[in-house]
Amino acid sequence: MPWIQLKIDVTAKHAEQVGDMLSANGALAVTFLDAKDTPMYEPKPGETLLWPDTRVVGLFDAEFDMPPVIAKLGKAKVLSENFVYKLDPLEDKEWEREWMDNFHPTQFGERLWICPSWRDVPDPSAVNVMLDPGLAFGTGTHPTTALCLRWLDGLDLTGKTVVDFGCGSGILAIAALKLGAERVIGIDIDPQALLASKDNAERNGVADAIEVYLPQDQPNLEADIVVANILSGPLRELQDIITAYCKPGGLLAMSGILENQAQGISDLYQRDFDMDKIAIEGDWSRVSGIRNN
Questions:
Q1: What's this model's pTM, rounded to 2 decimal places?
Q2: Which fold does the domain 101-291 belong to in CATH?
Q3: Higher pLDDT, 231 or 262
Q4: Distance (Å, rounded) from C-alpha 178 to C-alpha 204?
């Protein structure tokens, strides 16, 4: 069945109210999207975060009578008769199937391949991570994840202990284990991420070598390698926690950082690390360094 989307750009203050109005006027589903490509950290449990400029999208049956809906919205105090909206037809597709068809095996660095669990491995002799993202973010397609994967591929991880801070689907943690790490600790605020990490580790035959924790349960330890693919805000706020995981002489890599934020993060961590040259990919960056004594 075909659909139609009604898109309205509002401030975060009014987004949920507008979403409720769409639902009350016949929308079968309402989603909130970033209207201006603004990065945001994953919310804490029980917390709802919306972008400063939020796009509210209501999904309607294509046969639904939309003019009365538009007219009602125009009378709402949070909008106006001249509010800007867009109606887009949406083709009926099996969206999950289409996403799976477009997720291909990808090489990172010299040795490492990330392969969807439903596709054949291109190079059986390579270091292959079989991935099913499931309910958690992390496929390797985003530049921040790619920057971290290539960094890990360039290290000798044999016998090392690695902390993956913000592990998501477990892609970095599992890649580290497949590249030779002896022990990996994954930490994430989302219980679904921990479940996805364990499931993917099981799929890759490394479940016995990975430990996953919520932040309140995270262990005290000093690791050889720490990787934190989150965002610049949390990297600032959690500087002392992230630094404490990295032993003297250990290596740290951080991503989820926009290019114009990278130097600020590098300067901040220079207190405890000898910083490397910042790596850039598109609008995103990776900041790394060696923990000093």
A1: 0.65
A2: Rossmann fold (3.40.50)
A3: 262
A4: 8
